[in-house]
Amino acid sequence: MLTDEYVKRVYAQVEKRDGDQPEFLQAVREVFESLEPVVAKHPEYEKAGVLERIVEPERVVKFRVAWTDDEGKVQVNRGYRVQFNSAIGPYKGGLRFHPSVNEGVIKFLGFEQILKNSLTSLPMGGGKGGSDFDPKGKSDAEVMRFCQAFMTELCRHIGQFTDVPAGDINVGGREIGYLFGQYKRIRDEYSGVLTGKGLEFGGSLARTEATGYGLCYYTAEAMRVLRNDSFEGKTVVISGSGNVAIFATEKAQALGAKVVTASDSNGYVYDPNGIQLDVVKDIKLGHRGRIKEYAERVPGSEYHEGCKGVWTVPCDIALPCATQNEIDEESAKALISNGCTVVCEGANMPSTPEAIAVYQSNNVLYGPAKAANAGGVAVSGLEMSQNSYRLSWTFEEVDSKLKSIMENIVANSLEAAKEYGHEGDLMLGANAAGFVKVANAMVAQGVL
Ligand code: NDP
Q1: What is the pLDDT of residue 378?
Q2: E runs forming strands in 74-174
Q3: Cβ count within 10 A of residue 327
């Protein structure tokens, strides 16, 4: 519940203006709940109107994307780029291609990104973009034509010093390649305007692995500090089977855990012997297949229709890595009654507010998305540095920087939580630590 008068007043204004954007309201409310002790201690933020300004994107670009499918039929999608906050660096955040994309979804992701990027300690502002384009079932040529049409408009608004997009759901190496090619063609400029690029054209080693690996580094560090515990011998439930899920599975296994699930938007597989990641990689990265195929190929594993059931599988640690609001109150309760004591978020906002309340009242070690999944954007930041230097670091160099960034996020979150009177609260700590840096920069730069 919000109690601080300033916070309540600004939230009421957001509700009035953006009442039709439920995901955005959810993200703002969660952050505002954490910020009450922060604004109480810093009256200068109210004086400078920081909360009023931070919830309003600096710019929202919305555009038509017209392209031709393989039958020669004209298709029209909507494109978005929300340039949310540039107080501490150029706008930075991924592009999502999914039928569920609308302005409110992109705004929630962009808002989260402001604080996430700040937490990495790298100089990156917050932004996000995407389209309601659905790449499922589309040919490579259709995806290419869509990406080219999308970039034809987007290229007017981005640049290495202005706004540097990356991937997100359904935007991986293939899409980033097409987008980069079109930017270069139109602008006649070879610069680090996108991250997540192929290694041959300016990409960073370990960017592909970064979000999933980073999630495990974060979880391991939080468990070490708060519970004197580790992944060793633990059973882990992971949702999704995309970029984040695959590399979270790989690192959790390397750290000695048994991952027993994988899922997609149709259903989930349970493998009591531990997920065989080479099979998942072959299905998802090899031929963009469905996770159901896993159960057909691996004896002893089971496939279940529907995504929600994955949270009823007994585990010690849950790492949601698919999409927003995938864990509701009922699923959170199921996790806990089956022995789960750690939930760290690879996806953005995968837990509903009611699920978070269940974690909090059951002493679950809860690592919120903006901290736990910041590894992807952190390595994107390192990719930008390498592009500027015009050199490439080794996998080991990038991976070790990633690990120390994730460990610092845990330390900084815990320090902020303590400073604001909520010792051990990784959510409040992440929101407070991320916010203070951005807020101070906004105050220093005047009313913009
Ligand atoms: P991918 O497109 O690689 O994978 C997404 C996975 O989630 C797929 O298995 C997909 O299944 C599943 N999924 C997507 N939408 C839904 C849905 N509505 N219901 C159930 N399952 C769904 O995306 P990423 O792995 O990159 O992203 C996953 C999450 O991680 C997102 O929340 C993203 O914002 C977040 N994230 C990603 C980062 C990155 O670096 N890639 C960085 C930080 C956060 P299907 O194939 O059936 O659609």
Answers
A1: 98
A2: 74-85, 91-97, 126-131, 163-166
A3: 27
Measured CA distances, 37 to 353, 370, 432 (Å): 19, 19, 9
For residue 135, give the nearest of 200, 179, 93 by alpha carbon: 179
Q: What percent of the chain has pLDDT over 90?
A: 100
The pLDDT of residue 46 is 98
Please indicate whether residue 241, judged by its CB atom, sits closer than 6 Å to ligand 1: yes
Q: Which atom of ligand 1 is nearest to the CA of 376?
A: 40
pLDDT number for residue 1: 86
| Residue located via tokens 């469905």 | 290
Q: Is 138 a catalytic residue?
A: no
Q: What is the reported pTM?
A: 0.98
Residue nearest to atom 36 of ligand 1 (CA): 347
The count of other CB atoms within 10 Å of the CB of residue 4 is 19
What value does the mean pLDDT take over residues 17-41?
98
Ligand 1 centre distance from Cα of residue 250 (Å)? 16
Structure tokens at 162: 């202005």
| C-alpha 410 to ligand 1 mean position (Å) | 24
Residue 36 backbone dihedrals phi, psi, to 5 degrees: -55, -50
- Going by the DSSP 8-state scheme, the letter that residue 159 receives in this structure is B
Contact in structure between 352 and 327 (CB atoms under 8 Å): yes
Ligand 1 and 373: CB distance under 6 A: yes
Distance 265 CA to ligand 1 centre (A): 9
Cα(167)–Cα(320) distance, rounded to whole angstroms? Answer: 18
User: 323: CA distance to ligand 1 center in Å?
Assistant: 5
Query: Which residue puts its alpha carbon closest to atom 46 of ligand 1?
Result: 264
pLDDT in tens, 123-168: 999 999 999 999 999 999 999 999 999 999 999 999 999 999 999 9
Q: Indicate which residue of 92, 107, 128, 197 is catalytic.
A: 128
- Give the CA-trace dihedral at 226, 232, 233, 235, to 10 degrees: 60
Q: How far is CA 11 from its chain centroid? A: 23
The region that residue 230 occupies, defined by phi over 0 for left and psi between -120 and 50 for alpha, beta otherwise, is beta
